[in-house]
Amino acid sequence: MVKSRRALIQWTLFAAFTICFGGFVLLNLPTLSKQSSSIYHDGSPSRTYHMVPQLTSGVSNEVLTDQDVTWMYRGNVYRQGFSNEVLKNYQNMKVQWSSEEINYSVHRASKATPAVDDSGIYVGGDDGWFYAFEPDGRVRWKFFTSRTDNGIHGSAILIKDRVCFGSYNGFFYCLKKSNGEPIWIIRLAEAMGSSPTFFENDFFVSIETSDVNGYIARLNGTTGEIKWQSPWVGEQIHSSVTLDPEHRRVFVGANNGRMFAFHMDTGALLWTGDAGGAMKGTATIADGKLFFSSWGSRFEAVDLTTLKPVWQVKIPGVSQSSPAIVPGSSLIGINYHGEKSGFVVYNMGTGKVLWSHEIFDSKALNLQSATAVRVSENEWAFLQMCEMNQLCLMRAQDGKVLKTWTVKGFMTGAPTVYKNNIFINMEYGSVIRLSAN
C-alpha cells in the first residue's frame, strides 16, 4: 500500500511537471524560434531535424539592386535558358566530383537547378535540406527547412551576400551565403515549388495552397514584406514567373491549363489564355513573343503586344519543360515525354520544326529543361540528358551530338554552366560537377 501510494504521488508530480513545462514551451515557441537560430540552422553534416522557423522579417536594412543578382533561374527575367559564356575545351571535360546524396525522389517534381557564382554552389534537396557547397564539393553549410514529403524543388536566386529560395513548406528564405544564417524568412502559403526572380529591387514569386489554388506575390527585396498579392488563379501554380518589363506584365501558368498575365505594379489580372493543358514549366519571352508548353502536348507562341496566338503546334508528348533559346537566332528548343520522348527545335517566327532528337528511355527526359551554351564565339549547342546515364551537347543548328558524358542516373531541372564548369542535379543522388581541370 505504501509503495502504491508513493508511486501514485511520483506519477502525479511527473505529470504536473510535464504539463507545466509543455505549456511554457508552447507559449514561448514563437519567441524561442525568433531568438535562437540554432533551433532551425545546422552548419554540420548531421541529419538532425530541427524546428520549423517562425516568421521573421525586416532584419536587413541593406537595399539590394538588380545589379546585385549573380545567378537567376533560366538566366534572366525573360527566362530564356541560355549561358552566354563560351564552353572551352569541352571535349576534355569529365566528372570532377559528386556531392553527398541530396535527392531521394520523394516527390516527382523537377529537382532544383544548381545556383552558382564565385562564392559557391547552392541547391535544395527533395528531403527539405538546402546545401551550400564549396567549389571543390565540400559542404560549407546546410539548412533544414522542415520535415516534408516534397522538399525543395525551386531553384535559388543569388543576390550579393545572400541566397534566397522557396520550399514546399510554404516558406521563402533569404540566408547568408557565408554561413546559412537567416536574414529574413516569410511564410507565404502551404507550398512553393517555383523559382523566384528579382527585378526593380523586388522579388516576384508564385505560390501554392493545399486547397488547390495559387497566386503571385511581389515582395520587398530588402525586408521580404508583401507589396501586392494577385487574385487567386483557381489552381496550384508550379511554374515560375516570367517578366515582361516593357508592357509591365508578370506571366505565369497554372495547373488548370491557363496562362495568366498580371500587372507588375499592382498585381491586377490583365489577361488569361488557354494553354491546352496543365502548365508545369516556365514560359520564355523572346522575339516579341511569349512561348510556353503544357501537358496538353502543345507548344505555342503569343504576341506580346496583342496577347493573341501567333502559332500553336502539336508536340509528340507531354511537356513540362522550360524553353531554351539561342540568342541572335530564330532557334527555340523544348523537351517532351510520353510513349516517345525527345527534344525539338523550332523556328520562333513560324513554329516550323527544324530538327528533333528522340530519346528512347523516357525516364531520362521527362522532367528536364535544356540549357543553350556557346561552344565557340559563333556556334551554339543545347546541353541536356539525351539518354539514361548520358549527358549530351547537341549542336543547335542541326542536332549533331558534339560530346557525351557518362553520369550515374538522370538529371531533372536544368544544367548550369559557370566559368567553364557544368553543374547538374540528379533525380536520385548528387550534384555533379564536370570540367576540364
Which helices and strands appear, and what pairs or packs with what?
Elements: H1 2-35, E1 41-42, E2 69-71, E3 82-86, E4 94-98, E5 103-104, E6 115-117, E7 120-124, E8 129-133, E9 139-144, E10 157-159, E11 162-166, E12 171-176, E13 182-187, E14 197-199, E15 202-209, E16 213-220, E17 226-229, E18 242-244, E19 249-253, E20 258-263, E21 269-274, E22 284-286, E23 289-293, E24 298-303, E25 309-314, E26 324-325, E27 331-336, E28 341-347, E29 353-359, E30 371-374, E31 380-387, E32 390-395, E33 401-406, E34 416-418, E35 421-425, E36 428-429, E37 431-435
Parallel strand pairs: 3-30
Antiparallel strand pairs: 1-9, 2-10, 4-37, 5-36, 6-7, 7-8, 8-9, 10-11, 11-12, 12-13, 14-15, 15-16, 16-17, 18-19, 19-20, 20-21, 22-23, 23-24, 24-25, 26-27, 27-28, 28-29, 30-31, 31-32, 32-33, 34-35, 35-37
| Approximate helicity band | under 10%
End-to-end distance:
79 Å
Sheet of most strands: 5 strands, antiparallel
Mean pLDDT: 85
Structural class: mainly beta
> In CATH terms, what is the fold-level topology?
Methylamine Dehydrogenase, Chain H
- Radius of gyration, rounded? 23 Å
Please list the strands of the largest sheet in the order they lie side by side.
1-9-8-7-6
What number of structural domains do the residues give? Answer: 1
What low-confidence regions span 5 or more consecutive residues with pLDDT below 50? 16-55
Task: Report the β-strand fraction as a percent range.
Answer: 35-45%
CATH superfamily: YVTN repeat-like/Quinoprotein amine dehydrogenase
Number of strands: 37
* Contiguous helical run count: 1
CATH class: Mainly Beta
Shape descriptor:
globular
CATH architecture: 7 Propeller
